[in-house]
Amino acid sequence: MDVPSLSTQLNPLVILPELIVLTALVVVVVCDLIVGRTASRWTPYVAVSGLLVSVVQLGFQWNNDHAIAFLGGFNGDALSIVFRGIIALSAAVTILISIRYIEQSGTALSEFISILLAATLGGMFLSGADELVTIFIALETLSISSYLLTGYMKRDPRSNEAALKYLLIGASSSAIFLYGISLLYGLSGGATKLVDIGTALTLSTGLGDPSIGIVIALVFVIAGVAFKISAVPFHQWTPDVYEGSPTPVVAFLSVGSKAAGFALAIRLLVTAFPVVWEQWRFVFVALAILSMILGNVVALAQTSMKRLLAYSSIGQAGFVMLGLIAGTEQGYASMIFYLFIYLFMNLGGFTCVILFSLRTGTDQISEYAGLYQKDPLLTLGLSLCLLSLGGIPPMAGFFAKLYLFWVGWQAGLYGLVLLALVTSVISIYYYIRVIKMMVVKEPQEMSAAVLHYPVVQWNLPGMRPLQVSLISMVLITSLAGILSNPLLSLANASVSNTPLLQSFIKASTVSVSITDVDSHL
Amino acid sequence: MEAIYQYAWLVPVFPLVGSLILGLGLISFDKTAANFRKGSAILVISLLGVSMVLSIILLWTQIQGHSSFLQVIEWAKAGDFRLTMGYTIDHLSALMLVIVTTVALLVMIYTDGYMAHDPGYVRFYAYLSLFSSSMLGLVISPNLVQIYIFWELVGMCSYLLVGFWYDRKAAADACQKAFVTNRVGDFGLLLGILGLYWSTGSFDFTVIGDRLSNLLESGAIGTGLAVLMGILVFLGPMAKSAQFPLHVWLPDAMEGPTPISALIHAATMVAAGVFLIARMFPVFEHLPAVTNVIAWTGAFTAFLGASIAITQNDIKKGLAYSTISQLGYMTMAMGVGAYGAGLFHLMTHAYFKAMLFLGSGSVIHGMEGVVGHDPVLAQDMRLMGGLRKYMPITATTFLIGTLAICGIPPFAGFWSKDEILGSAFAAQPALWLVCWLTAGITAFYMFRMYFTTFEGDFRGNDQSLRQFLKREAIHGFSISVGPGAMHADELSLNPGDDHAHGHHGHPHESPITMTLPLLILAFPSVLIGLVGTPFANYFTEFIHPPVATGSLHLGVTHGEEFNWNEFLIMGGSSVGIALIGISLAFLMYLSHRIDPGAIANRFPALYGFSRNKWYLDDINDRLFIQGSRRLARAALETDSKVVDGVVNFTGLITLVTGEALKYFENGRAQFYALIVFGAVLGLVVLSGVSG
Questions:
Q1: What single DSSP character describes residue B446?
Q2: What is the rounded CA–CA span in Å between residue B332 and residue B492?
Q3: Is ipTM > 0.85 here?
Q4: Nearest residue on chain A to B79, alpha-carbon basis
Q5: pTM reported for the whole predicted model
C-alpha cells in the first residue's frame, strides 16, 4: 500500500479538532515545565483558545463527505461533530470557571488543565468512535482522567474519598462494559466495527427472536453507558462524587462527560443493536422512569447545593432519554437541542455555585438566605439558570423541555411524557426553593455566610473569566429559548446529515409499519 | 424606494432604542439620569421624529400605489410547526403608523410642559417611548402571534403608565383594575388564537380566513364552534377597546397622567382593538353571527358611554366615557362591515380626541394653579367656568374638538360619523336609531362640558363648594348623606387648611410646549375629514378590506354612485339631532333657562342610573369580586385541609423513602457495586422475558 492511498484510507484530517486540543494540551504541559509556576497565568487561555479553535474547526468539517477515518475506527459525521462541539465547549467554560477555584485551593493549575484536556480528548473521541477498541480506549481516557480530576484536591479527604469511590464503581462498570463488548466480538464472529457487528447480529438472528446472548451483551453495554450518564440504578456514585470533588470538575462531569455518554449511547445502540431495538427501548424506558422519579424526588430532601445539582442532573438525564426512546428523527434532534441548552444553563448554575463558595466557603442551601441583599448579580444569574433548569418560560430550558416532551408525545410515549411532566413539576419545587431562599428572606433572616459576605470584587486574579462565563451563560440561557432557531436548525441538520441515523430511522419506521400491518391482519 | 421598505422595521426600533437608553440610564445611574431632563426629552422626541418621517414616507409611497410589502424570518421551526416573525407594510399599517407617530410625537412635546415639575419626568419619557415602540410593532405585525406579543406589551405599558403615580391609592387601584379586566379579554383572545390555529393550522389572517371558509363549507368544523372562536377573539378587542361589559377599566385609567390618557386611552392603544377587528376581517366575514355580536356590542357601548357621560363632573371621566362611546361607533362600523368607515372614524377620532384630552390636561394644569395638586378639585368641572378668559388657546381648540366630536360639518367628526351612520342604516335601521340618538346625547354632554368649563363665571375660589366636593369624594357618589354618617377623614377637612393659599386667584394659560400641540392638532381636527367626504371618498378608496367581500353588506363603500338626496337626509338628520343636543346644553348650562338639578330631582332613578354608571361597577363587585373572594376562601379551606394533607402525606412518604433510600446510599463502595451488578442481572432477566 503506497503512502497517498494509505493517507486516504486513514483520512487523518477528520480528527483535526482533536489534534488541536492535543496540541493545546502539549503546549500547556511543556510550557509549564519550562517556564515554571508563572506560566499558570496564561496557560488557561491557551487551553481555552485551543478548545475554541477546535470548535471552529468542527464547524468547517460540517459538510465533510469523507467522514470515515482510520479504516472505520472513527466516524466524523454530523452527529459526532455536534457532540464533540458540546464537549469542547463545556471544557472551555469549565476551564474559565476553574482558574480562581484551583488557585484559591493552592493546587497547581496547569496539571489540572492538562488532565481536563485529556478528559475532553477522551470524550471527543468517544463521540465519534465507531469500533469497539477505539470506544473502549476513548471511554477509559475519559474515565481515568475523571478519576484524577475528582481526587485533585489531594489534601481534602472528601475529594480523596470521592475519587476512590468513583474509581471502584467506575472499574466495575468498565468491567461489565468490557464483558459486554467481548460478547459482541464473539457473537458477531470477530468483528470489531459497529457496522459489521450490526450486520452480523441481524444475519444471525434472521426473523426469529434474538438469542439471550445478544440481550446479555446489550444489557452489559448499556450498564457501561448508564454509568456515564448516571442513570438510575447506576447512579449511586453521583451524589458522593459530586459532593466531594472540586466544583468545576462536577460541572464538567455533569455536562461534558454526560454528553459523551449520550453520544456513545446513540451510536452504539443505533449501529450495533438495531436487531434488539425493542429490548433496548425497554431497558431505556426503565432507566428513564427510575431516573426521573428518583432524581427529582430525592433532590427535594437535599441540603447541599452540589448534591441538589447532582440529583437534578440525574433527573435531567432521565428527560433526555425520552428523545432516545422516541427513536424518531425529531427525537434525536430534541436530545441534541436539550443537551445544548443544558450545557448553558447547568454550567451557568455551577458558575454561580462556584462564585458563592469562593466568597463564602460553603455549599449549604440554607447559607444562601438573603443573598439578594448582598449580591444581586449572582442572585439573578443563579435564579435564571435554576428557573431554566426547572423549565419556566421564557427561559431556554422551557423550550428545550417543550420540544422534548412534544416529540415524546408525537412518538406515542404518553405515559412517559406524563411522568416527565409530573416530575418536572416536582423539580420546579426544589429549584424555586433555592430562589426563594435567596430573594424572599428579610434582612434579619440572612445566614451567617451572607452576613459576612465580602465586597464584590471582580479585579482579583481569575475573577474576570468567572464573570465573563457567568454573564455569557446567563445571557444565552435567557435568550436561547426565544431565539432558538439557530440551535434548533443545527440540531435538526445534525440528525438529517447523519447517514447512520437516517438509515436506522427508516428501518425502524418500516419495521413498525410492518408490525402494524401484522397486528391489523 | 425599495430600500425604505427593507428598513421599515426601524420604525418601532427607534423609540425602543430611546426607551432602552433612558431605562438603562435610570437603572444604572439613578440620580444623574433623572436630572438629565431636557436631554432625555430631546433624545426621545427626535428618535420618534425619525420614525414619523419614515412612516410618512411609507404612507406616501403606499398612496402612490406601491404594492404592499411583507418580510418574515423564521423564528422557530420544529418539524411541521413553523413560527414566523416579521413585518408587513400595507395600506392599513402605513396609515396606522402615521396616526400613531404623529399623535405620539405631539403628546411627547406636550409632556414636557405638563410633567415639568414631576420628579418622574425621565421615567415617564422612557415609558412613553416604550409604549410607542410596542404600538408601532403591533400595527406592522403580520400574524396573530406577533400581534398577541405586542398586544400584551402595549397593555403592560398602559398599566405602568396608569399606575405612574403609584403612591396615589386611586392610581394603584385603577392600574390593578385595568390589568384584571384586560386579563379577561386577553385570555379569550389567546384561546381564540389557539383555537383558530388548531382548526386552520395558521396564524396568518388571510390564510385563516380562507381555510376557515373551506372548513365551514366542507362541514369539517361546526358553525357554532367557529362562532365561539370568533367571539373569543373578539373578547380581546372588547377589553382593549373598552366595549361593554369589559369597559369598566377605562374611566378609572384616567388616574394616569393626562398625556397618557390622550395617547394611550384615547388615540392609539384603545383603537388597537378596532385595528385587530380590521385585521381579522378576512376571518370574521365568514361568520355573520360574530359580526352581529360585534355590531350590537358596539352600538350598545356607544349608547351606554354617552348616557353615563351626561352626568360626569370630572372632566377627564367625561371624556373617557365619550371615548368609550366613540369606540363603540367604530366597533359597530366594523360589525356591519363598514371597514373603511370604521377606520376613518378611528383616524379622525384619534386626532380630535387627543386634542380634547390634551386640552383637558391644559385646563387641569391651569386649575392646579388655583386649587392645588388635588385631582378631586382640579378635575371637577363644577369648580371651573369662565376659563375662556384666562386660557383662550385651550378654549378655542377645545371648542373645535367639541364641534368635531358632535359631528358639525365641515369638522372631521361629521364625515366619519355620517359614514358610519349611513352604513348602519343600510345594514340594520335599528342600529342606526341607537347611534343617531347617541349622536344627540354626545352633542349634549360635550357642550355641557364646554359650557361649564369655559363659559360663565369662574367658581374655583368658592371655598364652600370645595368643601362640598371634598366631602362628596370621601363619601363616594351618594349625595344624600344621612346624619351621623361621619367619615374618619372628614375631621381633617378643616377650612383654611388648603393647598390653594400659596397659589394665584385665577388660572393661567399653559406654556407654549402644551399649547403648540393643541394648535397643531386643531388642523387635522378640522380638515382631515375632507379626505373622506362621500362625494370624493379618497379614504375608502385607499383603505378597503383585503379580500373582496362576498356575504356582507358593505354599506357606503367604493363603487357606489353618490346620491345627494340620501346624503342630505342622513347628514341633515344627524346634524339636526346634534343641534337639538347643543341647544339643550345651551339652555341648561349657559343661559340657565332650564335647571338641570330640577330634572335630576324629577327622575332620581334615571339620574342615579347614569351617575352610578348603570351600577355596573357595583354589579361587578357583587358578582365577581365578592364571588371570587368567596371562591378564594373556599379554595383556601380546600388548600389547608385537602392539599396540605396530601402534601404532608407526600412529605411523610418522602421522609420514609428517604430513610429507606439511605440504606442504598450508605457511602460504601462495595454496596454500590453490588447494586450495579444486581441491576444488570435484573435488566437482563426483565428484557429477556419481555423480548
A1: H
A2: 48
A3: no
A4: A330
A5: 0.68
